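Project standup — Tuesday

K.O.: blocked on the structure for the chain from last sprint. Re-posting the sequence here as requested.
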Amino acid sequence: MKSDPLKIAIKGSTQEHLPIEDVIDGIVILKNGSCALVMQLSSVNFDLLSEREQSALVFAYGGILNSLTFPIQIVIRSNTKDVSLYLEKLKNAEFEEHNPLLKDRIRLYRAFIEETVRKNDVLSKSFYVVVPFSLIELGIQTADKTLFSGMNPLKKSQKLPYNKEYILEKAMASLEPKRDHVMRLFSRLGLEIKPLDTRELVQLFYKIYNEESFANQKIQSLNYVSPIVTTKK
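H.V.: unblocked you, prediction finished:
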């Protein structure tokens, strides 16, 4: 008796189609054996600086890039900001305010925010510095893949060239000194920079690949062989 193909469970997970093999101790291991660490960087409102301050900042940033002896990636992610909670707080503040003048000011400000959001997309930007560990450093003479470039989703899952523990050991020995050097350089610009830990990396990549549903999901587990998110109740 032939089984109905429609009744056969389709086995597999999203992770099988991603370029990421695992995230361990804040290190992203890709399926081709290369690795990377990711650091989140604060920002500066460049337009509010004086012309002299802008020139000094650009010169210092150029000095950082020229002093690097290894490659880095600078990633900027823009997301539409949800201001509904902020508007709700303004509405509550307006309702609770007894001073007629202040009440009217809050109402006008809330109307201004609503009009701004309606006419323009309010974006929040996140800045990341990625330090890669290439296959060449691992001893494999082949083309490397960058962390955010992705891989062919139709390609069958790759097998790591070495065992995961060996790759992680080599990657950490190479990436940790580079991480410390990059943190010192960007700190001189007055910027805050911090490496993302394992949970933060999982959340970041889940958001990248599931941007529309991220707001309704929460990380529940770091076990990669089972679903890591559940719908909020």
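K.O.: great, moving the ticket to review. Strands lie at 20-24, 27-30, 35-41, 73-80, 123-133, 193-195, 217-219, 229-231. The mean pLDDT is 79.
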